[in-house]
Design a protein that fits this description.
This protein has about 170 residues and is mainly α. The protein is built from 6 helices and no strands. The protein starts with a helix and ends with a helix.
């Protein structure tokens, strides 16, 4: 199971990297076309917007995997281990409630776009292509939160110090 999870993590990072590369290339091409050739590409701007939406929600899942979401760890670190465990579980439950709410709202928005056959003006892209990233990303994030909660219950917490986290961030 751990091997499958590692493979999934690699695939997710590759997809995020690929979308980012496409976004950068399309942005460069769009700027050249707009300012050098005097031909704006409306379809490219919409395509880049869709890419940014996907990066945001897939990135939220990737951040949940690495426990990089905003957490109040300053005061928690001074508390006894059992209290830290409870606070971590409460924080994860709150994250999961938010993610479940976004899954529902993403579903409502996406099904509305599909029902009304809504498309973008410049490129004619169906809006559901972007909006489906909300429930997909939040489902993946919910799975990662559940796995993090299981780790917390097993006593496998991220026990790195603030200095270690900063050092890791600056090295990557």
């Amino acid at each position: 199971m751990k091997k499958i999870y590692q493979i999934y993590n690699q695939i997710e990072r590759m997809i995020l990297g690929l979308i980012l590369i496409v976004l950068i290339v399309m942005g460069f091409v769009s700027v050249i076309c707009r300012f050098v050739l005097q031909v704006p590409l409306a379809w490219a701007e919409e395509f880049m917007l869709f890419c940014m939406v996907w990066i945001a929600y897939l990135g939220a899942s990737a951040a949940a995997n690495e426990r990089k979401h905003v957490r109040v760890g300053l005061f928690v670190g001074f508390m006894p281990k059992p209290v830290q465990k409870v606070i971590s579980l409460i924080a994860d439950i709150l994250w999961m409630i938010c993610a479940l709410f976004l899954i529902y709202l993403g579903y409502v928005v996406t099904s509305g776009y599909i029902a009304h056959k809504a498309v973008s003006l410049g490129g004619g892209y169906p809006y559901w292509i972007a909006s489906i990233s909300i429930p997909v990303g939040m489902i993946l994030m919910t799975i990662r939160i559940i796995l993090a909660m299981m780790d917390t219950l097993r006593g496998k917490n991220d026990e790195r110090s603030i200095e270690e986290i900063i050092k890791e961030e600056t090295n990557t």
